[in-house]
Write a structure and sequence with these properties.
By secondary structure, the protein is mostly helical. 64% of the residues lie in helices and 1% in strands. It is built from 37 helices and 2 strands.
């Protein structure tokens, strides 16, 4: 019988894997049968079968099947005296145990026994398993045993103990205070691997609170100057970067060894960490004595030169971190970074979007009066269509698609505007050039940034008087540009710049070479398709330009001027009526109505008959005096010049004494008292309200009956009050005008 049972449970892990592969069609049923066999194997007292069953169950757990029901059997296999079975048990625990597993409390003595083993392999298996199944209770109970093992004779054991102590300290922070001195001694361990493990653990712990590890600075500095392990040096330098803000004296101490590493190390990773530590530690600050400033400048130049090699490397990761480091050096040493402008500008052509964005960040900070024109020209080249670019590095399809991305193109335009307008246009020396750039961006952009460009046009036009004439000429060209007034794709067109064009030409219409042309552009048929905000500005500017033009007619009044006035008034009246009066926007309607009334008044008072030449006493022919209507509009718009106001100017204006900004200027109108229930019933009595409609028959009849009975009980005063309310309601109703009839409005 035993022989038969042994033959029944002879399936190994290899047999299980082979069976799963052979039963693809009915895999679920096959695995269910195998799990049932595993349950039988675990009930037997055969340690070999149990270990084999746990191995198979661990494999099935990796496939997604639950094995938590076998946790007690896992502990049994962990306690096996055979190293092979012990390893299987710890692997099963690693795969299936969690913080809530009940049998973890049974593993404390088991793990203590394995840690005290004379076999280093068993110790290693126990430490590895403990790192995965550690709980606060296990960390508290095993911390003292692990700390005692820091003096183990085998370096491999000391190294593994140091690493598992990191997990212990996370679960049991009090253990760090009790064992800090013992762990500190491992920094001077004769074995380099143990020292490296100690440094690694200390660096990870110091991330939470670096200040607590300042006492380790002497030992760490000694390792920095004596070790040749690049990986450990990287960790030490990272730790010093975190410590320098808490101990400024470290900066001066670290400067010589880090400078030596920057100049000599061939490892790119170590070089970057050294440069990052120099930046984070404030070693590039030029404050202090002359010698300190000179050494800081020398170190900064060395760092920037080394970072250039990062940008020249074909590795994209090195390019990215090189640009990132240069961005951090830029605020303190912009002139040094600017010397490598050529290689930085080449990074804009990189197909990797992350590298291009980092390069753009760097270029924004590099902009100055000397290089602004070159930088803007290079950035605009990225906004040109693909067939116009001449960069050989951008021939691949993915890079071209990235350049045509609307989000990326809009970001470039915002950066162009930012570097030109920052610090109140401190870098712009030629505002005509800047206005031309803005004008080019309206058509080259390919994305809708019209609001941004509109604000820039208006800002420059108002603040810079020296280029105001050129600004008005440029605005006239924008008003005549069909790509803006009649765009093929309105979503990507920058038509909002027309608002700035119309506003500026209206505000500074005295600078117009041909006001008649401006009036014709503002009243062209394509205006009806523009945004309502633009249309409203068109109407405002149209009236201003017309007022200025009409006022100038009085200085050259003759028959030709009279005819021009009549024709222009007729043209504008027709344009306002067709384009603006029927707009669905309320603001445009209101402005159009006001302009139309003003034009009607001017048309009524403008002379219609040809002018007759009169003979004066001196027998010289003279023209009649110009009508007063010509100068009637001009004072309304141009009595005072519009000057720019500083953003903080309002704060400098003192508040007058006695002014209470919280008090009412006009007392609010009191709310009417609600009608009484009797009045409500009275109003319901006749639901026609003067329109002759009485509602549904049944409801109306019922209301009449109620009203009749109620009228018999009301007093004379109540009847008079109701009559007044009824009369008021009838008079408040306004008849609905017929189609085309405005007499009721």
């Amino acid at each position: 019988m035993n022989m038969n049972m042994n033959g029944l449970f002879a399936h190994t892990l290899t047999d299980l894997i082979r069976g799963i592969r052979q039963n693809k069609k009915n895999e679920q049923s096959y695995i269910a049968k195998e799990i049932a066999d595993i349950r039988l194997e675990l009930r037997r007292n055969d340690a070999d079968l149990k270990a084999q069953a746990i191995a198979k169950l661990t494999y099935l757990q990796m496939m997604g099947y639950d094995m938590s029901w076998a946790s007690f059997h896992v502990v049994e296999v962990m306690s096996s005296p055979k190293f092979l079975y012990k390893g299987i048990g710890y692997l099963g625990a690693i795969q299936s145990f969690n913080q809530e597993t009940d049998v973890l409390m049974l593993t404390t003595n088991l793990i203590k026994k394995d840690l005290a083993s004379s076999n280093a392999s068993e110790i290693g298996v126990a430490i590895n398993g403990l790192s995965h199944i550690l709980t606060p209770d296990l960390a508290r109970d095993l911390c003292a045993d692990l700390v005692a093992m820091l003096n183990h004779s085998r370096p491999i054991v000391r190294k593994k103990v140091l690493l598992v102590l990191y997990k212990v300290f996370l679960k049991y922070p009090e253990g760090l205070r009790l064992s800090f001195s013992r762990m500190k001694d491992r920094l001077e361990d004769p074995d380099p691997s143990v020292v490296s493990a100690a440094v690694n653990v200390i660096c990870e712990l110091a991330r939470r609170n670096p200040k607590n590890y300042l006492s380790l600075a002497p030992q760490l500095f000694k390792l920095l100057t004596t070790s040749s392990n690049n990986w450990m040096l990287i960790k030490i330098i990272k730790l010093f970067a975190a410590l320098t803000p808490y101990e400024p004296r470290l900066t001066k101490k670290l400067l010589p060894p880090i400078t030596t590493l920057i100049q000599t190390t061939p490892a790119m990773s170590l070089l970057y960490e050294c440069i990052h530590t120099v930046i984070a530690g404030g070693m590039l600050a030029t404050t202090g004595s002359g010698s300190n400033a000179e050494s800081a400048n020398t170190l900064a130049a060395t760092c920037v030169t080394k970072l250039r090699t990062f940008l020249e490397d074909p590795d994209q990761n090195l390019k990215y971190i090189g640009l990132l480091a240069l961005t951090k050096i830029l605020p303190t040493h912009p002139h040094l970074v600017g010397e490598h402008k050529d290689i930085i500008l080449k990074c804009i052509d990189d197909p990797d979007i992350s590298i291009r964005m980092r390069a753009l960040d760097l270029i924004v900070g590099m902009a100055s009066k000397k290089n602004l024109t070159e930088i803007v020209k290079r950035l605009i080249s990225h906004l040109l269509p693909a067939n116009e670019t001449e960069h050989s590095s951008m021939n691949n399809g993915s890079a071209t698609a990235a350049l045509m991305d609307p989000v990326y193109r809009a970001d470039i335009i915002r950066r162009i505007v930012f570097i030109c307008s920052q610090n109140s246009y401190a870098n712009v020396t030629n505002f005509e050039w800047y206005l031309a750039v803005l004008s080019d961006l309206t058509n080259v952009a390919g994305v809708n940034v019209g609001t941004l460009l509109m604000q820039q046009f208006m800002d420059v036009g108002v603040r810079v008087k020296s280029v105001r004439t050129y600004t008005i000429q440029l605005m006239m060209r924008l008003l005549a540009d069909t790509r803006l007034t009649e765009p093929d794709n309105p979503e990507s067109a920058n038509s909002m710049v027309l608002l700035a064009a119309a506003w500026l030409t209206g505000e500074y219409c005295a600078l117009l070479e041909s006001p008649e042309s401006a009036l014709e552009l503002l009243s062209q048929k394509s205006t009806a398709k523009l945004d309502p905000a633009i249309q409203a500005t068109y109407l405002q500017s149209l009236l201003k330009i017309f007022a200025h033009w009409m006022n100038n007619l009085q200085y050259s009044w003759n028959e030709e001027a009279r005819q021009s006035l009549v024709e222009m008034v007729d043209l504008l009246r027709e344009g306002v009526k067709e384009l603006f009066s029927r707009s669905p926007d309320l603001e445009v309607q209101e402005r159009a109505s006001n302009v139309a009334v003003i034009l009607d008044i001017i048309a009524e008072h403008a002379p219609k008959a040809p002018l007759k030449i009169e003979n004066s006493i001196s027998f010289a022919p003279t023209m009649p005096k110009p009508p007063a209507i010509l100068s009637s509009l001009y004072p309304l718009f141009f009595n005072q010049e519009l000057n720019p106001v500083a953003p903080k100017a309002q704060k400098k204006v003192p508040v007058p004494e006695g002014l209470d900004l919280e008090s009412w200027i006009h007392e609010p109108i009191p709310e009417p008292e609600p009608l009484s229930s009797g009045d409500d019933d009275f109003l319901n009595e006749d639901s026609s309200y003067g329109y002759g409609w009485s509602g549904e028959g049944a409801a109306a009849e019922k209301s009449k009956k109620k009203g009749k009975g109620r009228h018999q009980e009301d007093s004379k005063e109540s009847a008079e009050a109701k009559a007044k309310v009824k009369i008021t309601m009838r008079h408040s109703c306004v008849r609905r005008p017929a189609e085309g009839d405005c007499s009721g409005l």
